[in-house]
Amino acid sequence: ELLRRETRRRLLAAVDRLADGERAAILARYFAGLTDAETAAALGVPRATVKMRAWRGLSKLRRELGEEAP
């Protein structure tokens, strides 16, 4: 349980350091569970933009967190 809480804390801190658009896409897609289309509508951007921002955000999270990343 302690390790799980620490991992979640590190993940949320890393998400918080992402660029605004990347953070919004990650939070909507993976924390709120929205689809690409729903996220695009909520953010007022094209679906392709959501996909690119999510991809970039996940790439940064993987680099920063290593194997623990989602």
Write the layout of secondary structure elements.
Layout (H helix, E strand, L loop, with lengths): L1 H15 L3 H12 L4 H8 L3 H19 L5
Helix pairs in contact: 1-4, 2-4, 3-4
Please tell me about this protein's structure.
- The chain is mostly helical and 70 residues long.
- The chain is 77% helix and 0% strand.
- It contains four helices and no strands.
- The chain has helices at 2-16, 20-31, 36-43, 47-65.
- Helix 3 (36-43) packs across helix 4 (47-65).
- The mean pLDDT is 92.
Number of helical segments?
4
Largest sheet properties: none
**Alpha-carbon distance between the two ends:** 18 Å
DSSP summary, beta strand count? 0
The chain-level structural class is mainly alpha
Low-confidence stretches: none
Order of helices and strands: HHHH
In helices, the fraction of residues equals over 70%
How would you classify the quaternary structure?
single chain
The average pLDDT value, as a whole number, equals 92
The outline comes out as elongated
Task: Provide the β-strand percentage band.
Answer: under 5%
Give me the Rg, rounded. Answer: 12 Å
Structure in a nutshell:
It is built from 4 helices and no strands. By secondary structure, it is mostly helical.
Provide tags for this entry.
single chain, about 70 residues, mainly alpha, about 75% helix, about 0% strand
